[in-house]
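Pasting as-is:
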Amino acid sequence: MGNSLFVVWRESIEAMLVIGILHAWLKRNNSDGQGLRALWSGVVTGLGLALALGWAMLSVQSELTGEALEWFQSAILFVAAGLIVQMVLWMQKHGRQMKQSLEQDISRAAANSGSIGIAAVAALAIAREGAETVIFLYGMGLENSDSGQLAAGAALGLLLAMATAWAVNRGLRFLDYRRFFRISGFLLLLLAIALLVAGMERLIGMGWLPTLIDPVWDTSALLDDTSRLGAMVSAFTGYRARPSLMLVALYAAYWSSVLLVQRRLNRDA
C-alpha cells in the first residue's frame, strides 16, 4: 500500500501543479471564462485517456497466458522503471522552466486554436501524468496480490496530494515544491530499481537470464526480505538478502548510470 500511496501522491502533486499553472495563466489572460471551461474539459479528457490505457492493459493481460503473459508483465515492469527514471531526471533538468514552458504552450494554443487548443494542452499534460500513474500502479500490482491495499494506497495518496497542495499554497514554510520534488525524486529512484529487480527476476525465472552466482552474499541475519519489515524494504528499494550476481550487476549498473547522469545535469545547470 505504501508504494501506491507514494506514487499517486507524487504524480498527483505534479498534475495539480500543472493544472494550477494553466489555471493561473487563464485567469490573467482569459476574462470570458471560456478558457477555464476548456481547461477543465481537457483535464477530464486526459483522465479519460489514462483510464483507457489502464483498461487496454488489463484487456491485453486477460488475453495472454503462460510465457507470453510473463513477457508482457516483465516488459511493463521495465517500462515503469524507465518512466520513473526519465521523469525524475526530466524534472531535475527542466523543473525550473516548467512554468515558463507550460505558459508558452498554453499561450500558443490559445492564440492558434482557441478553446480547443487550451483543452488539448491540458488533456496531453494530464494524460501523460495519468498514464505514468497507471503504468506504475500496474507494475506494482504485479508484485502485490492484494488489489484492495493497492487501491486504498492510491486513494490515500490522492487525498494526501490534495492536502499537500493546499498546505503549499497556504505558504507553510516547511513545505515547498522544490524540496518536495527533490526528496520524492530520490525515493522514486529507489522504487525504480525495485521494479527493475522484479522484472529481472521474472526473466531469470523463465530461464532467459542466468543467475551467474547465486547467492553472492547472505544478509538475512541482518534483514530477511521475507520478514514483514524486510518485505517492505524489498518492495520499495529492491533489497534482496540473498542476491544473485546478475542482480548485483543490475544494482551497480543502475546506480552508477543514474549518478553519472545526475552529475552531468548538475554540471550543465
